[in-house]
Amino acid sequence: MRYSRRDFLKATAGSGLIALTTGSDGVVAAFAAPPVPIPTPMTKETATFNINGRNYQAEYEARTTLWEVIAVKLGLTGTNRSCNRASCGACSVLLDGTPFYSCHTLAMEAVGKKIFTVEGLGDEKNLHPMQKIGYLYMAADCGFCTPGWEVTAKGLLDKNLNPSVDEVKSALAGHICRCAAYSAIIRTVIDTGKVLRGEAEL
Amino acid sequence: MSQNPQKPKIKIEPKLESTVVIRQPMVRNFSTGGGHLPGDVLTEGDQKVVTKKWQGYPPENLKVVGKPMPPMPEVAIPRFLGKAEYATRVVLPNMLHAKAVTNPHPRATIKSLDTSKAEKMPGVAYVLTYKNAPSTYPLTRELNFQGDLVALVAADTEDLAEDAADAIEVEYDTLPAASTLKDAMSSDAPDLRQGKGNLVILSPNNPHYDPKATWVAKHGDVEKGFAEADIIKEFTYYFAGAVSVPMQPCGSVAKWDGDKLTFWGMGQSIYPSRASLAKALGIEESKIRFIDKYNGCTFGAANAAARFDPYIATIAKVTGRPVKLMLPKDQELAHITIKPENLTKFKVGAKKDGRIVALTHEIHISNGDQEAVGHASGEISKNQTELYTSKVPNWKSSWHSYKSNAIKAGICRSYTQQEVKWSWENMIDEMAEAVGMDPIQFRLLHVPRPGTTLTKDWHEDLGKKYEAENGVVHYDSFASVEVLEEGAKAIGWDKRNPVPGGNPGRFKRGMGVGMSQHHPGHMGYHDGEVYFEKVTAQPIGGGQGLFTAEIEIGADGYVTMRNALPDSGTNHDTALAALVAEMLGFTTRDRIRVVWGDSDLAPSSGTWIAGKTITLQGAAVCSATNKLRQDLLRRAADALKVDVAKLQMRDGVISSTEDPKKRTTFAELAKANKGSIRQTGMGVNKDQGRALTKGVGACFVEVEVDTWTGNWRFLRGVYCHDTGLAVNPLVAEADMHGSLVESFQMATDSIPWDREFPGTRHYSVGYLSYRIPTIMDVPEQTQVFIDSLEPRWFFGTKSFSETSIGSVPGAISNAIYNACGVRIREHPITREKIIAGLRRGGTGR
Q: Could you give the 3-state DSSP secondary structure of residue B178?
């Protein structure tokens, strides 16, 4: 049995009745229930997605993920999708300031929300302090997980400009860095806070 | 929170987190336990070839090499911007997305395959199966492991492709399978090699031939040795396998313009990858532009996913549309190479003073679906065995490689290291205890040191090696003593309680050590060297092949370095750029630019593997730079009418040592030469190049075991490396952090096998079932770099990124034993095994 987002969605649709009749936990029931196919193709919708302060029009189906809208349909390819199973954090984006795994967030859930991706952080000409410090501290080896944790760390610093090491760890616990640059990532986030607070300079 | 406006701001600068660099004297003597002999030249090999020490570039007065610096900005900064060009980020107009159908059985043949429904589904452009796969690169009906490729569907979106993949109807005839090592070794195992037996056997002409093993080497008389021994012990260890799990989904993008193919791949080479692709498609290599600048990890393992590349290119050709594949993790993990399951048996005899006088080593390996000797190939076997046997008078090592219906064994965050060293490092610790010695002292008694000679029995093929002398080779730059002694200091080994489980209380701490040796120190030859000409006179096979680099000075005075090799987070161009800067007399690296990862932009080169880039691609880079330096000096001498010997080079200016007013610049010389001056260099790695310039490493760990629950924590790691001269300690430290954490995980997590068919398929649904260390799990780390100044190479550098990697799983096991008295011989280390061992009284026996 290969589990996928599609199977999960199909199963959830079919398991509503089970959850109602047995009163058991909906998610558990979803995995237990036999998959019931939903007719395809699904209805196409068009909506406006607000990404990094700009509005973009995109067409999506009910099952289209936010990652697909951002990276494939709109070509904002900075957000890397790795596991596609909502477990590694590489594809994280902020929705109204809260980090979400965009591979398992449906596009429809993001409509009307403020979406923030790595492209909103900074660019070559105008590096965000986190990007500059991350570079100086070697907080990325291969860099595939980097846009994801940067976005989550931005979400953390927006709420708490002076996080402790434990707070940084908790905030980034949902991000896998296979090169294990973790200690440099922690120092990067802490010192970005220092720069943003005006206590340190680049 | 109040903030003092007067307080001076902290300056953010790159700094090492926790690294100790142990400087070694420039000239050492074998008798004092380290280094190379005095003198300016090295005489090597039977042909008495003289090489200038450090290739004429001694590790003195260095301005760039050896300094901690962030990586090359053009390589590293895009990673923080989401602009690093991974193949997964390529999105093209009208692009198709491919999805795979894979085999659910360990071994089967396709009985029937119906794609008609799938082909009619919305958005579907093409379905590729064994029926229409290219004749130059067929797919077969025979499926030899779970996850083997059955079909590829290309459609407008990933979802539509997956819908169609689900609609393909396949019937399988299942066949008897041997998916685990136990199955493959069993006498009633199904025959997977057409009557030849599952054990791979060499040709009888091979000096390492044995009718009952894949590869055998021996020395002295083992029976006589055991008769002389005071203490004889036997041990059996099992390693359950491990996987590497790159972050980037393996896959590629193909796009045709007429008969010209642009291909974005994922792997560790440009030109060898392009050559394989061209061969599979039956086209000329020059018709393909192969691009791979960035990979999100490869660990050597991702190279195997190139199996899909020709199919992706084929679908793109047939449909006339670009095609992209991003394998989901569960499918990907069935195709990338893994650390194999293996079973190791030792019989060891020692004298009362601790010296091992007889040893037999027997290892059985599940090699997966491949007809190859795999881990049991000579070079590899020797490397993994000789660390503790070079001084043992009587020994025998036999390696057994079995074909099985498992995922292919191969490169996986080192080749053969962690999985083979697991048994060796546990055994050495157990023997140390048996003879009543401290594990470090016991190791010091047996490891080779500079000056130690390896016998012909180890290297029967030494006669063919270029630098062997009278059939033997010496260890030279080899910091075996230093990695142990400096590591012991850094961890505080003197505070270790030598009694296993001897500390009081529920939470018991313990320390352990492991060692490893690997081939990365092997270096190649660059053009201009005698052996380079000899080696390249023969055909050069394999992915390592011939390495080329181009170094160019432009009219702006900037230096452009062209290296084809892709970057997987390795940042190797950062180290190479530092060498270029140093050789050209710069005091900073700012004038060096790098162009890489594209067959249209950089000259032909090989595959980077085994952490050997600094001496292979490095051979090409240093050779080109050396030529460029000589070229610039000659041009300056002509222009200034000054003798070359009286010129100096500093930061792009060449001036007379006697009259500084007589000066010219790189930019002026380039302008005078139609705008640029360019040199090409080559390096080669055939038969592993120079013999025995190896590396050695050690890992010290401190753990804490909760003796009530069996839970344990990895508190501290001290990771010691025989680095030669570390070119860039900042990048090296970051690399070694990952090396330690990933190897630590390999001690605690085996392959997440399918419960129904263990040994075949990962049932992983992502990273959920394979516990990859998160930010919560990593220990405090200290790196120890022993700068052992390799005399054969530029500035005393050598490769070291994989020398220590094998030491980690054994070190953790040894630390757990020291903490609580439970010896875990059956990998992986788990809470359950610790608690079971504690219940048995803490001996684990």
A: coil
Q: Residue B737 is nearest to which of A127, A136, A180, comparing CB atoms?
A: A180
End-to-end CA distance of chain B: 58
- How far, in Å, CA of B463 to CA of B232, rounded? 35
pLDDT digits (tens, 9 = 90+) for B108-139: 999 999 999 999 999 999 999 999 999 999 99
pLDDT tens digit sequence for B252-311: 999 999 999 999 999 999 999 999 999 999 999 999 999 999 999 999 999 988 999 999
Q: Which tokens sit at A26? A: 């909906």
pLDDT of residue B29: 76
Residue numbers in B near A52 (CB within 8 A): none
Chain B residue numbers touching A179 (CB-CB < 8 A): 297, 569, 734-735, 737-738
The verdict on A7 touching B (C-beta cutoff 8 Å) is: no
Per the DSSP assignment, residues forming a β-bridge with A95 are A98, A115
> What integer pLDDT is reported at residue B639 of this predicted model?
96
8 Å CB contact of B82 and A117: yes
Q: Where in chain A is the domain with CATH 1.10.150.120?
A: 129-197
Chosen CATH of A44-120 out of 3.10.20.30, 3.30.300.30, 3.10.340.11, 3.30.70.2750: 3.10.20.30
**Who contacts B85 (Cβ-Cβ below 8 Å, separation ≥6)?**
B78, B264, B291, B293, B294, B597
Q: Give B245→chain A minimum CA distance, Å.
A: 8
Cβ within 8 Å, pair B738-A71: no
* A 31-50 → B contacts, CB under 8 A: 40-41
Please name the residue of chain B whose CA is at the shortest distance from the CA of residue A6.
B159
Domains of chain B plus CATH, in order, are: 87-102+108-175+245-335 (3.30.365.10), 524-684 (3.30.365.10)
Residue A18 pLDDT more than 50? no
Q: Which CATH number among 1.20.1250.20, 1.10.287.1700, 3.20.20.70, 1.10.150.120 corresponds to the domain A129-197?
A: 1.10.150.120
* Smallest CA–CA distance from B7 into chain A, residue: A199
Picking from B336, B221, B201, B312, the residue whose alpha carbon sits closest to that of residue B264 is B312
What pLDDT, on a 0 to 100 scale, did the predictor assign at position A3?
46
Q: Maximum Cα–Cα distance for chain A, whole Å? A: 61
Residue A8 forms contact with B (CB below 8 Å): no
pLDDT digits 0-9 by tens, B429-471: 999 999 999 999 999 999 988 888 776 666 555 445 556 666 6
Which of B3, B4, B80, B323 to mutate against chain A (most A CBs within 10 Å)? B80
